[in-house]
Structures are given as C-alpha cells and as structure tokens.
Design brief:
Elements (H helix, E strand, L loop, with lengths): L3 H5 L8 E3 L20 E3 L20 E3 L20 E3 L19 E3 L20 E3 L20 E3 L20 E3 L17 E3 L3 E9 L3 E8 L9 E8 L9 H10 L9 E6 L7 E5 L6 E2 L22 H20 L2 E2 L8 E3 L5 E3 L6 E2 L8 H21 L8 H14 L10 H11 L1
Parallel strand pairs: 1-2, 2-3, 3-4, 4-5, 5-6, 6-7, 7-8, 9-13
Antiparallel strand pairs: 10-11, 11-12, 12-14, 13-14, 15-17, 16-19, 17-18
Helix pairs in contact: 3-4, 3-6, 4-5
Length: 439
Amino acid sequence: MHTLQQLRSGQLTGAKTVKLSEELKAFPVELVELAETLEILDLSGNHLTSLPDDFSRLQNLRILFLSDNDFIEFPEVLSKCMNLEMIGFKANRITHIPENAFPLKLRWLILTNNQLEHLPKAIAGCKQMQKLMLAGNKLKDLPEEMGDLRKLELLRISANRFETLPLWLLSLPRLSWLACAGNPFSGKKQTGNHLTEIFWNELVLQEQLGQGASGVITKANWKSNWPANSFKEVAVKVFKGEVTSDGLPSDEMKACMAAGVHANLVKVLGKIALHPQHKKGLVFELISSSYRNLGNSPSFESCTRDVYDTGTVFLVDEIISIASGIASAAAHLHARGIMHGDLYAHNILIDEKAHPLFGDFGAAAFYDVKDTDIAPALQRLEIRAFGCLLDDLLMHVTSSDVNQASVMVLSQMRDKCMQEDVLQRPDFSALQREFAQLG
C-alpha cells in the first residue's frame, strides 16, 4: 500500500504499480505524471465518483481496480486507455455504462455487486474478453451481440433478474465456467436439503483454517452425541451473507446440502442451527492435513487458467487418479442436477496418493436434467473446464514417465473435451468409462 504523501513528494516516480486507499474523494492528479511507467493502478476502497479526462494519458496502464468506490456511471474515458486488459468495479453503485466505454483489449471485466440493468451492445467489440463478472446486479438479459465473444471462458451472472438463461450462451465455443444461480429461472429445483441440525453451542471453535469470498472456515470440536469427555474434530464454515464474485452464499449452501455423499467430494455433516448472530453455516468432515491444494487460482497473466507451484510434476498414474476421481464426482453432481460452475485445480485437494477431494460450491447452480434444450449443453460446458484441468495436468507430467500410451489416451480425451462444438463433447459418464479402461 502506498500513501498520498509518497505520491505528491515524488517518491513513486517510475513506479509500475500504485495502490492508494485513503478515503479519497477526488482522483489524485499526480498519478497522471506516472504515465510513462504505470501499469497497475489500484484505487479500491475510496469514495471516487469520476475520473478526469486526462486519465487517458495512462497509455501503459494494463490493470485498473476501482472497487468499493462510489461510481454511478462507468467512466467513458477508459475506452481511450488502449492497453487496458483488466478493469475491476466491484461494489460500486453503477447504473449506466456508455455505449463505447470499453477499451477494445479488455479481457477481464469485474462489475460484481452494482446496479446494472443493461449492458451496452458495444461490449461485443471486446473480442479478447475471457472473464466477465456480473453477479449481483439487476440484469434481465444480455446483448445477443455477445455471441461474438468467442474467447469468453468464464461468466458470472448469478444473483440477477434473468427469467430465462440466454440459450445462445450454450453455444459459445470456449465457455467453461458459468455461474447462474440466484435468478428467477434458477430457483426452481432445490432438493436434498434435509441435513442434520448441529447446534452452535455444541461447537467449540479452534483455529481459523481459511477464509474465502463467501465465508470463514474454522476448525472446531463437535461435542454432541459422543461419549463423555470426547468430541469429533470438524470444519465449520460460517457464511458472510454478502454477494460474492460467484453469487449468493445462500445458493452455495443449498448446493452443498444437495450434493450428497461421494468419495471425491468434501463431506457435509450438517447445517448450523441457533447461531447467536443468526448466521448460516455448514459443518464439514475435517480434511486430513495430508491433503494439499492441487493448484493455485489464476493470476493476472493467466486470467482464466490456474497456476501451479514451480517444479510441480505428476506421474501419469497420479493424473489418472486425480482426473478419474473428479470426473466421477462431477458425474455424481450432474446426475443430481447440479452444475459446479468452478471446476478448477484450486478447488481440488489431493493427498500423497493423489486421491482428490472436490469442494467449493460458490458458483454452483441447479438445472433440470430432463430439459433437453439446456441440460446436455450445460453439462458439456463443465466438460470443457475438465478438459482445461486435464491440459494443465498433462503440461506437468514428468518427462521420465514411461507410460506414454496412457499419456496419448489422456491427450485425446482432453482434445475431445475442449473441442469447440459444444454438443460433440462427451459427458462425464462417457469419461468414466474411458477411465475404467485406463485403470
């Protein structure tokens, strides 16, 4: 984090990255003097409502964050920043976007939690768009011209006002990660929600295990229905109740509860009752410390694809174990009418035997498996996400592995999953049969 004093004293001259959060109500004009070097600018957490006309002098700017400010209109001047690739306006009050406000190199746009009712048709001119975050607005439709965004891979339209899912989305050749819960059309199927109630006073919280966009996960001792002076170690997730980039935590909770039991899914033990602040939450089986994250979330550069620790390598048998386990879990979810929406390595844990556990239902949505217009295509969108996972794993296969025949089969499987004709891709049941032959 930098300070306004550093900026005004010239200490930031030559900086490539600047981050300022000081309750600013006016854009610091001194930033424009960094035009020759500035590439990443983060002014989140201020009270800005506009940008000056000479903002366009920042021609080297690639990434701009203006989240948690007070913008009502998307600044049209951004269209003149010709190298802008990523823009974040999460949690403002934007109601209007001028028709030609988007820079044409834009590939990652975050408009989560605003007041948008429409998107301009000119968004179709952003041919490089890969990632579009629109959850938590008032959208009822999307411009059909967006069908030209053939590089779009990740789309979040949860918690809006769509009466129907735009069917043209289902033919986009690269769309792989779709979140669409929390809309009028998506609330029709909610089953399997009858979980054991676990009373808050039965849980003794220990150390925090992690925190995501939707909630806080804490280790706890569960003291009910166990012999005297004994308890069960569990993980407790208490939801924040705020709109996240993926959608509403309440939808995540419903999907977790409906997912059921599977050897490759994180096991839900029950739902929290009688929380003192009336918060919602779930209790999970505590995962062994032998498990670790398979991959890391996408970076600015990778945009939609996960990144892996330097030196990561996998044996072919490990890839088969991971991929077959996730295919089995996904098939289980699809049979229950649940699309995970976020099939990524960073949502997968593996142990030393490469046994995978799949979790994080923040982007999950229900769909009608009997709807022949929608169900097959939705399932095959997720198949492409699986193809990306296979592609990542194969890029890290150890060069000394002699099992090249299996590598060939896995590569062919990946290619079938990633082909552009959506309905020509296999489903997870077909993939399961292929993995059975590999085993």
